[in-house]
C-alpha cells in the first residue's frame, strides 16, 4: 500500500485480515528520522525510528476492523491502513503461565530497582507471547502461507487474561533441586490437573524461582514438547512490560552486571539478552508444534537474532553467534554454522520443512472439516495418507532434521518411501493436509 510522497507500507495490503492482535508493520518513509503509529489497542501514538528510509512499527488491534495511522513530520500526509483482527474458528490455544512456587512471593531475579513482582512478570510474559505469535505469522508469510499463527487464550476467550499466574505445589527449594526434565514433568502434571493444559490448550510457562548465583543457574529450564514449553525467568527483567518499550529493550546496549545471568550468546548486553531469551521461548514454542532442529533459522541458533525481526537497523556484529553451546539450557545438541542466503535474511527464518509443518498444523488453522489417518508400512518403508502428505522428515534422537521432503499442490496421496537403511535412533515425522501428524521410531 502506498501514498504519493513520503510513506508506504510494504508488508500489508489495505483491508487485510489477521488472526492475532499485535502486528509488525514494515514500510518506507523518505526524508524522515522517525514515524508515529497510532492503533486502536494502544493508548497513545508510538514512536519508531527510521533508518535508511525504512521503518518497522508495532500496532495493537482490537477485534474487528481497525484503522492504523502512520505519520511522520507535520508536512507529511498520514497513511491510514485498515486491518481486520478476526481470530480463527478454533478452540485450540496457547496459555501464557507464570509459575509461582508454594510459599514463595513469586518475584523473579533482576537488577536493583527493577520491578520483579508477579504483576510485572505477567505483563512481560503477555507481551512476549504476543511478539512470538507475531513472529510466527511473519515467518509463515515469508513462505507465502499467509500470516498463520497460533491463537492465544485471550484471542478466543473474551474474559481470559493475557497471562495467568499459577501456584505450584512445589516449593522453590524443591524446584531448584530438580533437573529441567524433572521440572517439566512436575509442572506439566500440575497444569494438566488444573485444566490449564489440555487437549485444547498448550502452556508457555515461565518459572519464577529461577536464580543465578554467579556460577550456576537453578530452577531453570528450556524444554518443550507436547502441551508445555517451560522456561526459566532469570532474564525476564530484560523483557518490556509495555509495547512502547519493545524497540528500546531490543536496542539496549547496557552491559549486564556480573550478578545477573548473561544469556545473550556472549554479546553481554540487555538488548542481546532480551533477543536471545525471547528467541529461546519462540524456539521452544516451535517444539510444542512438532518442529525439529534444521540447520539454520529460528529452530537452530537463529533464535539469538530475534531483534532483527523487529528492529529497522541492527549492529551486524551482534548478529552472528559464536559456534559455542548456549549458556543456559536451550535443548539443542548440534550448533550448525549460520550463513545468510539472502541479503534480507534476518537469520530467524523458518526452514521450508518447518514452515510447511506449521502451515498445515491444526493449531495454526481453523477446525478441520474432515479427519484423516497417516499409515506407515515398515515392511516397504512407505508412509501414506488419504488426505495427501505435506511433509515427511527423518530426525535423529536429538531432533536434528536429517532429511526433509515437502510436497506442494494437493500433496502426495499415493504414498512415499524413505531410504530402507537409516541410522540408529531415527524417527519418521509425517504431516498431511488435514494436520494429522505421525511420529514413528524406525529403530
From TrEMBL:
InterPro entries per the UniProt record, alphabetical: Metalloproteinase_M10B, Unchr_Zn-peptidase-like
PANTHER family, alphabetized: MIP04191P (PTHR21054:SF2), ZINC METALLOPROTEINASE-RELATED (PTHR21054)
Q: What is this protein called?
A: Zinc metalloproteinase
What broad taxonomic lineage does this protein's source fall under? Eukaryota, Metazoa, Ecdysozoa, Arthropoda, Hexapoda
Amino acid at each position: 500500500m502506498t501514498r504519493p510522497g513520503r510513506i508506504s507500507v510494504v508488508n500489508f495490503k489495505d483491508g487485510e485480515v489477521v488472526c492475532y492482535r499485535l502486528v509488525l508493520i514494515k514500510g518506507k518513509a523518505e526524508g524522515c528520522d522517525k514515524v508515529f503509529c497510532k492503533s486502536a489497542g494502544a493508548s497513545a501514538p508510538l514512536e519508531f525510528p527510521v533508518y535508511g528510509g525504512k521503518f518497522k512499527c508495532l500496532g495493537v488491534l482490537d477485534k474487528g476492523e481497525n484503522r492504523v495511522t502512520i505519520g511522520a513530520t507535520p508536512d507529511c500526509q498520514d497513511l491510514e491502513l485498515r486491518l481486520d483482527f478476526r481470530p480463527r474458528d478454533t478452540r485450540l490455544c496457547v496459555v501464557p503461565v507464570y509459575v509461582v512456587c508454594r510459599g514463595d512471593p513469586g518475584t523473579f531475579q533482576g537488577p536493583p530497582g527493577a520491578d520483579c513482582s508477579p504483576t510485572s512478570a505477567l505483563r512481560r510474559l503477555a507481551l512476549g507471547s504476543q511478539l512470538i505469535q507475531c513472529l510466527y505469522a511473519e515467518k509463515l508469510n515469508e513462505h507465502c502461507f499467509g500470516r498463520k499463527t497460533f491463537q492465544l487464550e485471550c484471542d478466543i476467550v473474551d474474559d481470559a487474561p493475557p497471562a495467568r499466574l499459577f501456584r505450584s505445589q512445589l516449593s522453590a527449594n524443591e524446584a531448584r533441586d530438580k533437573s529441567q526434565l524433572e521440572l517439566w514433568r512436575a509442572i506439566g502434571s500440575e497444569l494438566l490437573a488444573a485444566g490449564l493444559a489440555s487437549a485444547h490448550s498448550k502452556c508457555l510457562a515461565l518459572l519464577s524461582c529461577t536464580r543465578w548465583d554467579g556460577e550456576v543457574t537453578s530452577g531453570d529450564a528450556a524444554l518443550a514438547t507436547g502441551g508445555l514449553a517451560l522456561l526459566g525467568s532469570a532474564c525476564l527483567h530484560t523483557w518490556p512490560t509495555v509495547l512502547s518499550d519493545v524497540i528500546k529493550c531490543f536496542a539496549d546496549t547496557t552491559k549486564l552486571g556480573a550478578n545477573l545471568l548473561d544469556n545473550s550468546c556472549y554479546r553481554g548486553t540487555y538488548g542481546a539478552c532480551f533477543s536471545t531469551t525471547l528467541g529461546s521461548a519462540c524456539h521452544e514454542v516451535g517444539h510444542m508444534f512438532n518442529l525439529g532442529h534444521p540447520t539454520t533459522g529460528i529452530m537452530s541458533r537463529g533464535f539469538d537474532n530475534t531483534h532483527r525481526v523487529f528492529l529497522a537497523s541492527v549492529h551486524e556484529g551482534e548478529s552472528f553467534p559464536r559456534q559455542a553451546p548456549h549458556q543456559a539450557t536451550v535443548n539443542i545438541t548440534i550448533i550448525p554454522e549460520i550463513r545468510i542466503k539472502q541479503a534480507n535474511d534476518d537469520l530467524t527464518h523458518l526452514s521450508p520443512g518447518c514452515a510447511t509443518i506449521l502451515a498445515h498444523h491444526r493449531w495454526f488453522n481453523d477446525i478441520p472439516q474432515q479427519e484423516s489417518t497417516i499409515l506407515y508400512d515398515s515392511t516397504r518403508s512407505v508412509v501414506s495418507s488419504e488426505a495427501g502428505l505435506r511433509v515427511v522428515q527423518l530426525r535423529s534422537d536429538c531432533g536434528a532434521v536429517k532429511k526433509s521432503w515437502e510436497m506442494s499442490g494437493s500433496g502426495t496421496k499415493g504414498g512415499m518411501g524413505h531410504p530402507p537403511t537409516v541410522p540408529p535412533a531415527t524417527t519418521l515425522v509425517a504431516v498431511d493436509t488435514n494436520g494429522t501428524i505421525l511420529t514413528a521410531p524406525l529403530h
